[in-house]
Amino acid sequence: MAKYFDVHPDNPQPRTIGAVADSIRNGALVAYPTDSCYALGTRLGSRDGISRIRAIRDLDDRHHFTLMCANFAQLGQLVHIDNDVFRAVKASTPGAYTFILPATKEVPRQLLHPKKKTVGVRIPDHVVTQALLAELGEPLLSSTLLLPDEAEPLTQGWEIKERLDHQVDAVLDSGDCGTEPTTVVDFSSGEPEIVRRGAGDTTRFE
Predict the structure, then answer these.
(1) Which is deepest, 11, 16, 109, 145, by most CB within 10 Å?
(2) Which domain of life is it from (predicted)?
């Protein structure tokens, strides 16, 4: 059964955030809130966590996982980013955007798009997510909590606990965080390509 953690959306309790971060370090798969919708998260190098996310979401090997970063220092270790792209990404973060970029050797091979060798990265604008990333001290491997054959992601912590009780290890609940996933922009060719229109404004990429 999944552990259930209820935290304040504006002032998350450090002890609770610490407990969730410890569980991730120990290989747990957690459901947690972001600035767009709930996500599934696990440690960057966790093969078990990756396979469990694929199973829950019924994903194939072409799916772009997202590396949730606390700041640009973390993001810059994971992807190759030139000056023009840097300015565009910098102007849009933190926020509800996922950027697809060529990955560095720091990113485990199983996370990369099999042909493009790219990965998704983002810096969230959410107090609880940022608190968790700060406590964890490393990027969090993530994927939107959208179940197969469902049009919208799950939005309530109690419902996630109820439906995924035996598939995740913990649920971090800070209240409703919306149903609209991130806007996804692919910069792997150097020019922006809008892959998905979501919570982030696409005007500057058009």
Answers:
(1) 145
(2) Bacteria
Position 23 in a domain = yes
Per-residue pLDDT of the chain (206 residues; tens, 9 = 90+): 999 999 999 999 999 999 999 999 999 999 999 998 899 999 998 999 999 999 999 998 778 889 999 999 999 999 999 998 999 999 999 999 999 999 999 998 888 888 889 999 999 999 999 999 999 999 999 999 999 988 888 888 999 999 999 999 999 999 888 788 899 999 998 899 999 999 999 998 98
Asked whether residue 161 is assigned to any structural domain, the reply reads yes
DSSP 135: H
Residue-number span of the structural domain to which 90 is assigned: 1-194
Q: How far is CA 114 from CA 57, 61, 136, 157, in A?
A: 19, 7, 28, 33
CA distances from 17 to 9, 12, 29, 43, 124 (A): 12, 7, 15, 15, 16
Q: Max CA-CA distance within the chain?
A: 47
CATH number, domain containing residue 189 = 3.90.870.10
Instruction: Please give the single-letter amino acid code of residue 59.
Output: L
* C-alpha separations of 135 from 10, 14, 18, 178, 190 in Å: 16, 9, 6, 24, 33
Residue type, 25: R
Confirm if 30 and 172 have CB atoms less than 8 A apart.
yes
